[in-house]
Amino acid sequence: MWYLMENVQRSYTLSERLLRAIGIGHGGGTRREQEDIEDLIRQGADVNSYDGYHRTALHHAVERSADCVRLLLAAGADTDTIDINRNTPLHWAAFRNRADCCRLLLQYKARVNNMDFNNDTPLNWAAMKGNYQSVCVLLEHNASPDIRNYGGMIPLMRVAILLAAGLQSPDDEKSFELLIRCMGRIELRDRDGELPAVLARDNKLRSKLMAVCCTPRPLMQLGRRVVRMSLGQQHLPSIVPLLPIPERLQRFLLLEF
Protein backbone atom coordinates (compact mmCIF):
# COMPACT_ATOMS: atom_id res chain seq x y z
CA MET A 1 0.00 0.00 0.00
CA TRP A 2 2.79 2.43 0.88
CA TYR A 3 4.43 1.71 -2.49
CA LEU A 4 1.16 2.42 -4.35
CA MET A 5 0.61 5.66 -2.47
CA GLU A 6 4.16 6.79 -3.21
CA ASN A 7 3.68 6.08 -6.93
CA VAL A 8 0.40 8.03 -6.98
CA GLN A 9 2.02 11.00 -5.22
CA ARG A 10 4.99 10.89 -7.59
CA SER A 11 2.76 10.80 -10.66
CA TYR A 12 0.72 13.72 -9.29
CA THR A 13 3.85 15.79 -8.70
CA LEU A 14 5.12 15.03 -12.21
CA SER A 15 1.74 15.96 -13.70
CA GLU A 16 1.76 19.28 -11.84
CA ARG A 17 5.21 19.99 -13.19
CA LEU A 18 4.05 19.12 -16.72
CA LEU A 19 1.18 21.61 -16.49
CA ARG A 20 3.54 24.30 -15.21
CA ALA A 21 6.08 23.54 -17.93
CA ILE A 22 3.51 24.12 -20.68
CA GLY A 23 1.23 26.65 -19.00
CA ILE A 24 1.41 30.41 -18.70
CA GLY A 25 4.93 31.75 -18.62
CA HIS A 26 6.39 28.84 -20.55
CA GLY A 27 6.28 28.13 -24.22
CA GLY A 28 7.23 24.51 -24.69
CA GLY A 29 8.74 25.68 -27.95
CA THR A 30 12.49 25.66 -27.36
CA ARG A 31 14.47 22.45 -27.67
CA ARG A 32 15.33 22.54 -23.95
CA GLU A 33 11.68 22.96 -22.98
CA GLN A 34 10.66 20.09 -25.25
CA GLU A 35 13.32 17.87 -23.69
CA ASP A 36 11.99 18.74 -20.22
CA ILE A 37 8.48 17.82 -21.30
CA GLU A 38 9.66 14.57 -22.87
CA ASP A 39 11.47 13.73 -19.65
CA LEU A 40 8.37 14.39 -17.51
CA ILE A 41 6.24 12.20 -19.77
CA ARG A 42 8.87 9.47 -19.72
CA GLN A 43 8.92 9.54 -15.91
CA GLY A 44 5.16 8.99 -15.80
CA ALA A 45 3.45 12.40 -15.82
CA ASP A 46 -0.26 12.10 -16.65
CA VAL A 47 -0.77 14.05 -19.90
CA ASN A 48 -4.51 14.24 -19.18
CA SER A 49 -4.25 15.81 -15.72
CA TYR A 50 -5.88 19.23 -15.45
CA ASP A 51 -5.58 22.51 -13.58
CA GLY A 52 -8.14 24.48 -11.60
CA TYR A 53 -9.92 25.53 -14.78
CA HIS A 54 -10.03 21.91 -15.93
CA ARG A 55 -7.56 22.75 -18.68
CA THR A 56 -5.08 20.03 -19.58
CA ALA A 57 -1.54 20.38 -20.87
CA LEU A 58 -2.97 20.05 -24.37
CA HIS A 59 -5.28 23.04 -23.85
CA HIS A 60 -2.21 25.14 -23.06
CA ALA A 61 0.11 23.63 -25.66
CA VAL A 62 -2.13 24.36 -28.67
CA GLU A 63 -1.71 28.06 -28.05
CA ARG A 64 2.07 27.86 -28.11
CA SER A 65 3.85 25.02 -29.88
CA ALA A 66 2.97 22.41 -32.50
CA ASP A 67 6.01 20.37 -31.44
CA CYS A 68 4.74 20.26 -27.88
CA VAL A 69 1.26 19.29 -29.11
CA ARG A 70 2.80 16.47 -31.12
CA LEU A 71 4.60 15.15 -28.01
CA LEU A 72 1.42 15.17 -25.93
CA LEU A 73 -0.68 13.51 -28.63
CA ALA A 74 1.90 10.78 -29.13
CA ALA A 75 1.78 10.18 -25.36
CA GLY A 76 -1.98 9.68 -25.43
CA ALA A 77 -3.41 13.13 -24.67
CA ASP A 78 -7.20 13.27 -25.06
CA THR A 79 -8.03 15.52 -28.03
CA ASP A 80 -11.61 16.13 -26.90
CA THR A 81 -11.09 16.92 -23.23
CA ILE A 82 -13.11 19.94 -22.06
CA ASP A 83 -12.39 22.74 -19.61
CA ILE A 84 -14.97 24.25 -17.23
CA ASN A 85 -16.58 26.11 -20.15
CA ARG A 86 -16.63 22.96 -22.31
CA ASN A 87 -13.91 24.36 -24.56
CA THR A 88 -11.71 21.74 -26.22
CA PRO A 89 -8.09 22.14 -27.29
CA LEU A 90 -9.40 22.58 -30.86
CA HIS A 91 -11.46 25.60 -29.75
CA TRP A 92 -8.33 27.25 -28.35
CA ALA A 93 -6.15 26.37 -31.35
CA ALA A 94 -8.76 27.87 -33.69
CA PHE A 95 -9.11 30.99 -31.53
CA ARG A 96 -5.34 31.57 -31.50
CA ASN A 97 -5.13 30.81 -35.24
CA ARG A 98 -2.72 27.95 -34.66
CA ALA A 99 -3.67 26.22 -37.89
CA ASP A 100 -0.74 23.81 -37.46
CA CYS A 101 -2.11 22.71 -34.09
CA CYS A 102 -5.64 22.45 -35.50
CA ARG A 103 -4.33 20.15 -38.18
CA LEU A 104 -2.49 17.95 -35.67
CA LEU A 105 -5.53 17.63 -33.41
CA LEU A 106 -7.74 16.68 -36.35
CA GLN A 107 -5.19 14.14 -37.56
CA TYR A 108 -5.53 12.56 -34.11
CA LYS A 109 -9.32 12.40 -34.58
CA ALA A 110 -10.44 15.43 -32.59
CA ARG A 111 -14.14 16.04 -33.23
CA VAL A 112 -14.37 19.05 -35.51
CA ASN A 113 -17.86 20.12 -34.40
CA ASN A 114 -17.49 19.92 -30.62
CA MET A 115 -19.63 22.60 -28.95
CA ASP A 116 -18.81 24.65 -25.87
CA PHE A 117 -21.21 25.91 -23.18
CA ASN A 118 -22.57 28.50 -25.64
CA ASN A 119 -22.97 25.93 -28.44
CA ASP A 120 -20.05 27.51 -30.32
CA THR A 121 -17.91 25.21 -32.46
CA PRO A 122 -14.19 25.68 -33.19
CA LEU A 123 -15.22 27.11 -36.58
CA ASN A 124 -17.27 29.75 -34.77
CA TRP A 125 -14.25 30.61 -32.63
CA ALA A 126 -11.99 30.90 -35.67
CA ALA A 127 -14.57 33.01 -37.50
CA MET A 128 -15.04 35.48 -34.65
CA LYS A 129 -11.35 36.39 -35.00
CA GLY A 130 -11.20 36.22 -38.80
CA ASN A 131 -8.59 33.47 -38.53
CA TYR A 132 -8.53 32.46 -42.17
CA GLN A 133 -5.83 29.77 -41.90
CA SER A 134 -7.73 27.98 -39.14
CA VAL A 135 -11.04 28.38 -40.98
CA CYS A 136 -9.44 26.68 -43.99
CA VAL A 137 -8.12 23.74 -41.94
CA LEU A 138 -11.46 23.23 -40.19
CA LEU A 139 -13.36 23.27 -43.49
CA GLU A 140 -10.85 20.84 -44.98
CA HIS A 141 -12.02 18.49 -42.24
CA ASN A 142 -15.65 19.29 -43.08
CA ALA A 143 -16.58 21.49 -40.14
CA SER A 144 -20.24 22.49 -40.29
CA PRO A 145 -20.87 26.18 -41.10
CA ASP A 146 -24.54 25.87 -40.11
CA ILE A 147 -24.39 25.25 -36.35
CA ARG A 148 -25.96 28.14 -34.44
CA ASN A 149 -24.90 29.04 -30.94
CA TYR A 150 -27.42 29.87 -28.24
CA GLY A 151 -27.42 33.47 -29.44
CA GLY A 152 -28.47 32.34 -32.92
CA MET A 153 -25.09 33.11 -34.49
CA ILE A 154 -23.35 31.04 -37.14
CA PRO A 155 -19.69 31.45 -38.22
CA LEU A 156 -20.64 33.67 -41.19
CA MET A 157 -22.31 36.14 -38.83
CA ARG A 158 -19.17 36.23 -36.67
CA VAL A 159 -17.02 37.29 -39.60
CA ALA A 160 -19.68 39.71 -40.83
CA ILE A 161 -19.55 41.50 -37.48
CA LEU A 162 -15.82 42.06 -37.98
CA LEU A 163 -16.50 43.50 -41.43
CA ALA A 164 -19.28 45.73 -40.09
CA ALA A 165 -16.91 47.17 -37.49
CA GLY A 166 -14.81 48.62 -40.31
CA LEU A 167 -11.52 47.28 -38.98
CA GLN A 168 -11.36 44.22 -41.17
CA SER A 169 -8.19 42.64 -42.50
CA PRO A 170 -7.76 40.78 -45.81
CA ASP A 171 -8.10 37.53 -43.83
CA ASP A 172 -11.54 38.63 -42.60
CA GLU A 173 -12.65 39.18 -46.19
CA LYS A 174 -11.27 35.81 -47.29
CA SER A 175 -12.93 34.03 -44.36
CA PHE A 176 -16.22 35.71 -45.24
CA GLU A 177 -16.09 34.63 -48.89
CA LEU A 178 -15.02 31.09 -48.04
CA LEU A 179 -17.85 30.64 -45.54
CA ILE A 180 -20.42 31.87 -48.07
CA ARG A 181 -18.98 29.44 -50.59
CA CYS A 182 -19.27 26.44 -48.29
CA MET A 183 -22.87 27.06 -47.24
CA GLY A 184 -26.10 25.99 -48.85
CA ARG A 185 -29.11 28.07 -47.93
CA ILE A 186 -28.12 31.21 -46.02
CA GLU A 187 -30.48 32.93 -43.60
CA LEU A 188 -29.25 35.67 -41.29
CA ARG A 189 -32.50 37.67 -40.95
CA ASP A 190 -34.88 37.69 -38.01
CA ARG A 191 -38.58 36.86 -38.16
CA ASP A 192 -39.33 40.34 -39.47
CA GLY A 193 -36.94 39.87 -42.37
CA GLU A 194 -34.34 42.24 -40.96
CA LEU A 195 -30.65 41.73 -40.35
CA PRO A 196 -29.31 42.17 -36.81
CA ALA A 197 -28.59 45.84 -36.16
CA VAL A 198 -24.86 45.18 -35.83
CA LEU A 199 -24.78 43.93 -39.44
CA ALA A 200 -27.20 46.47 -40.93
CA ARG A 201 -25.23 49.60 -40.09
CA ASP A 202 -22.78 49.12 -42.98
CA ASN A 203 -24.81 49.76 -46.15
CA LYS A 204 -22.48 47.89 -48.50
CA LEU A 205 -22.33 44.85 -46.25
CA ARG A 206 -26.08 45.02 -45.63
CA SER A 207 -26.77 44.94 -49.37
CA LYS A 208 -24.48 41.95 -49.84
CA LEU A 209 -25.97 40.00 -46.96
CA MET A 210 -29.54 40.75 -47.96
CA ALA A 211 -28.72 39.55 -51.46
CA VAL A 212 -27.40 36.18 -50.28
CA CYS A 213 -30.36 35.77 -47.91
CA CYS A 214 -33.07 36.79 -50.37
CA THR A 215 -31.74 35.24 -53.57
CA PRO A 216 -32.20 31.47 -53.96
CA ARG A 217 -28.84 29.75 -53.97
CA PRO A 218 -27.79 28.07 -57.23
CA LEU A 219 -28.57 24.37 -57.39
CA MET A 220 -24.85 23.56 -57.64
CA GLN A 221 -24.18 25.40 -54.38
CA LEU A 222 -27.01 23.56 -52.63
CA GLY A 223 -25.82 20.26 -54.08
CA ARG A 224 -22.26 20.91 -52.90
CA ARG A 225 -23.48 21.46 -49.36
CA VAL A 226 -25.52 18.24 -49.41
CA VAL A 227 -22.59 16.19 -50.73
CA ARG A 228 -20.18 17.63 -48.16
CA MET A 229 -22.68 16.90 -45.38
CA SER A 230 -23.02 13.31 -46.56
CA LEU A 231 -19.24 12.80 -46.32
CA GLY A 232 -19.13 13.59 -42.60
CA GLN A 233 -15.95 14.44 -40.71
CA GLN A 234 -13.11 13.43 -42.97
CA HIS A 235 -10.06 15.09 -44.46
CA LEU A 236 -11.78 16.06 -47.69
CA PRO A 237 -8.62 16.78 -49.74
CA SER A 238 -7.75 13.11 -49.21
CA ILE A 239 -11.25 11.73 -49.84
CA VAL A 240 -12.73 13.84 -52.64
CA PRO A 241 -10.07 12.89 -55.26
CA LEU A 242 -11.21 9.28 -54.83
CA LEU A 243 -14.77 10.10 -55.89
CA PRO A 244 -15.71 9.00 -59.46
CA ILE A 245 -16.49 12.51 -60.64
CA PRO A 246 -14.71 14.95 -62.97
CA GLU A 247 -11.72 16.81 -61.57
CA ARG A 248 -13.49 20.15 -61.90
CA LEU A 249 -16.33 18.90 -59.69
CA GLN A 250 -13.80 17.62 -57.18
CA ARG A 251 -12.23 21.08 -57.03
CA PHE A 252 -15.71 22.58 -56.63
CA LEU A 253 -16.43 20.30 -53.66
CA LEU A 254 -13.13 21.38 -52.12
CA LEU A 255 -14.29 25.03 -52.25
CA GLU A 256 -11.63 26.09 -54.74
CA PHE A 257 -14.27 28.15 -56.57
UniProtKB/TrEMBL annotation:
Gene Ontology annotations of biological process type: exocytosis
Coiled-coil annotated residue ranges, if any: none
This protein's UniProt keywords: ANK repeat, Exocytosis, Membrane, Neurotoxin, Oxidoreductase, Presynaptic neurotoxin, Repeat, Target cell membrane, Target membrane, Toxin
Main location class: membrane
SMART domains (alphabetical): ANK (SM00248), SOCS_box (SM00969)
Domain of life: Eukaryota
Enzyme Commission no: 1.3.1.74
InterPro entries documented for this protein: Ankyrin_rpt, Ankyrin_rpt-contain_sf, SOCS_box
GO cellular component: host cell presynaptic membrane; other organism cell membrane
Domain SOCS box, chain residue ranges per copy: 204-253
Localisation: Target cell membrane
ANK repeat spans: 85-117, 118-150
A GO molecular-function annotation: 2-alkenal reductase [NAD(P)H] activity
Record protein name field: Ankyrin repeat containing protein
